[in-house]
Specification:
Elements (H helix, E strand, L loop, with lengths): L1 H44 L10 H16 L3 H4 L1 H9 L13 H12 L2 H14 L2 H26 L2 E2 L5 E2 L2 H11 L5 H36 L4 H16 L2 H30 L1 H17 L6 H17 L5 H6 L7 H8 L1 H20 L14 E2 L2 E2 L7 H10 L5 H32 L3 H20 L3 H42 L8
Antiparallel strand pairs: 1-2, 3-4
């Protein structure tokens, strides 16, 4: 028996020592195979426009945002007051078809966009494009509000409503039904393409990447440990929530999103208020940098590119994902959810991203040449006080006021990652059921696949897989925005009808 135990111990030790090497060799093999198979596609999606450093896909989203803003008479500014009343529930009828309230739909969609883009993405934009990138980020966020209005109005208008109260909606439904209504061909092709890339984006960018970054942040605070442990814990909690459907997801996100948003914004506000005398200077740098660049690589154009690029990556306006969450809202007026949805880019980009940028600027993380007053750059990036970039730069900026903030940031990153996974599980599920049909068994299969990839994402570092999933996520915008151009007259018809009935008093606040 002792001999057996000794043999078992030796075998266990051998396996334990061999696993890291085996895992690394498997990682390397998968990396190489996946990069060879998909590298061309990633390069295609993120290829730069001629003569610039801006990916054409970002230009595609920004141009769309300009078009929708002008077409709807800058709806994002004229209707923001009414949008807030809708979120408060002033016009909500509990008897309307749908599964969640306006606030829950907004929280669910926000949980998919508010995340690492607000923390790491802003730091990348400011670190390369300087404070001026913040100005262009805000502008892109304000324009993106019109895109969200357009896609989410259509999401409710063409959703499927089932007898048991469940609903399914999103671009795949308005691309098919909207095109049919207008007598246009090609709607089903756009819908299928959108659905395929939604599933790929959900499993990658909305899942594996989130789990991977959450594990990295946790390990950075508590010390290194196997990623699969984080993966199993996340997968278990995610499964418990998503098995209950959108109502279960909404109940969690309506609590988590405000909490994590308030936690992050309060910390930023404390630093901003503590340095209130520097806020004017910070905004002066933002405006000056937006039109001069303050010596950063690429000057004004470099600042503009970084601002637009990060805003597009952060708020996902035009990707079509938010329309899936907003389709589940309880309402009989599609345009009301368009109004609610336009608040998303404002909260995500204009408020949270701007606060992150202000903290970085105020904390003097960016090194300035005392003689010229310009930023010191090296290899196309602004030199920082600690030599950090991305999420580490944001962490260092907050740590100048709170030495313990990296711990708080870790909690925020975990919550951001968790809520993003919840939302994207729902987006992927709705694309899955569009392709393969509704049914509890079919839904359970996708949910199990999704949770399996949570573990994979936390346990391994597969850069090409993540790169492809990001490309897949932005591929959704190709199909979605193209469809929106053909369907926006239908949205304008809804807007004019609702506006007329609101003015006549036919639509009025509901007494609760």
């Amino acid at each position: 028996m002792r001999l057996f135990h000794a043999f078992l111990a030796a075998l266990t030790a051998f396996v334990a020592s061999a696993l890291p090497a085996a895992a690394q060799s498997i990682d390397a093999a998968v990396n190489a195979a996946f990069e060879n198979a998909t590298g061309w596609y990633v390069n295609l999606i993120f290829a730069s426009l001629p003569g610039t450093n801006i990916p054409w896909i970002v230009g595609w989203l920004v141009i769309g945002a300009f078009v929708f803003s002008f077409y709807f008479g800058f709806v994002q500014f004229r209707w923001v007051g009414h949008a807030i009343k809708l979120v408060k529930g002033d016009y909500s009828d509990p008897n309307d078809a749908g599964e969640v309230s306006h606030f829950q739909a907004l929280a669910t969609a926000l949980s998919g966009t508010v995340g690492l883009g607000n923390i790491a993405g802003v730091a990348v934009a400011v670190g390369i494009g300087g404070p001026g990138a913040t100005f262009w980020m805000i502008l892109a966020g304000l324009l993106g509000m019109a895109t969200k209005f357009t896609e989410c109005t259509l999401g409710v208008k063409y959703r499927n409503e089932f007898p048991d109260g469940r609903v399914s909606g999103g671009p795949m439904y308005y691309l098919t039904r909207g095109f049919e209504e207008r007598g246009l061909p090609g709607g089903m092709i756009l819908a299928v393409g959108f659905s395929i890339f939604t599933i790929l984006g959900a499993l990658g960018g909305g899942n594996m990447f989130q789990a991977n970054q959450a594990h990295q942040q946790i390990a950075g605070v508590v010390g290194d440990f196997p990623g699969w442990i984080t993966g199993v814990i996340f997968a278990t909690v995610v499964f418990i929530v998503i098995v209950g459907g959108i109502k279960s997801i909404a109940k969690v996100t309506e609590k988590v999103v405000p909490f994590m948003g308030i936690l992050y914004v309060l910390a930023a506000l404390v630093i901003i208020l503590a340095n209130i005398d520097q806020v004017g200077t910070a905004f002066a740098r933002i405006f000056e940098g937006a039109f001069t660049g303050l010596g950063v690589a690429g000057g004004m154009v470099g600042a503009l590119i970084q601002g637009f690029r990060r805003a597009a990556f952060s708020n996902e306006a035009g990707i079509g994902s938010a329309a899936i969450a907003h389709s589940a809202v309880k309402t009989k007026e599609p345009v009301t959810e368009g109004f609610v949805a336009l608040l998303e880019p404002f909260i995500d980009t204009v408020v949270i991203c701007t606060m992150t940028a202000l903290v970085i600027i105020i904390s003097d993380q960016l090194v300035v040449d005392p003689e010229t007053g310009l930023f010191v750059t090296e290899n196309g990036q602004i030199v920082t006080q600690t030599g950090s970039s991305g999420v580490a730069l944001t962490s260092d900026a907050f740590a100048t006021a709170f030495s313990w903030f990296p711990v708080v940031l870790s909690i925020a990153v975990v919550l951001f990652a968790f809520s993003t996974m919840l939302s994207w599980s729902y987006y992927g599920l709705k694309a899955w059921t569009f392709l393969f049909g509704e049914g509890k068994t079919k839904e359970l299969i996708f949910k199990l696949i999704f949770c399996f990839f949570v573990i994979v994402g936390a346990a391994v570092s597969l850069d090409p897989v993540i790169a492809f999933s990001d490309a897949a996520l932005f591929s959704m915008a190709i199909f979605n925005v193209l469809g929106l151009y053909f369907l926006m007259p239908l949205v304008r018809k809804e807007l004019r009808s609702y506006s007329a009935r609101l003015k006549s008093g036919e639509i009025r606040p509901v007494k609760h």
